[in-house]
Amino acid sequence: VQLVIHVYILIYILFVNSDSSGDIVMTQTPESLAISPGETVTISCKASSSLTSGSYHLLAWYQQKSGQAPKLLIYDASTRASGIPDRFSGSGSGTDYTFTISRVEADDAGDYYCQHYETPRTVIQNNTKTCLCSSGQCHRCFLNVHFISATATLDTRTEVW
């Protein structure tokens, strides 16, 4: 049994009020990775400018399984959301962030996203995906467009290209 991860470049377009500070581009690596159950998955996101504000790191990680809404896993770069097992962890600061799944299980199959957030900005996350597939049971990888508010509430639409 082998898990396959496909990682795509991710781009965030940030909208602010009249004092727009421009776009922040996030690059997610590696492009592809083969993982067996029990092994460790590591995904990196690099921002074109710092996501650290004071003692806060404005970076979150989400998991989305086929047919389900995205689920918040990590916020503030390293804080696990309620009920998330310690197999999932995040780290990083400034422009460099890492997400790790230890002791990978078949149930971890899904899409993984990183997100930059900062009040009052709204993030449009476009063409951003890490596909984690298990035992050949991998749903098709679509282009997902997520509109994510700074409070981590999600409205999602999926476009198939």
From TrEMBL:
SMART domains per the UniProt record, alphabetical: IG (SM00409), IGv (SM00406)
Keyword Signal: yes
Signal sequence range: 1-18
UniProt superkingdom: Eukaryota
Domain Ig-like: 24-124
Pfam families reported for this sequence: V-set
Keywords per UniProt: Signal
Protein name per the record: Ig-like domain-containing protein
Natural source organism: Chelonoidis abingdonii
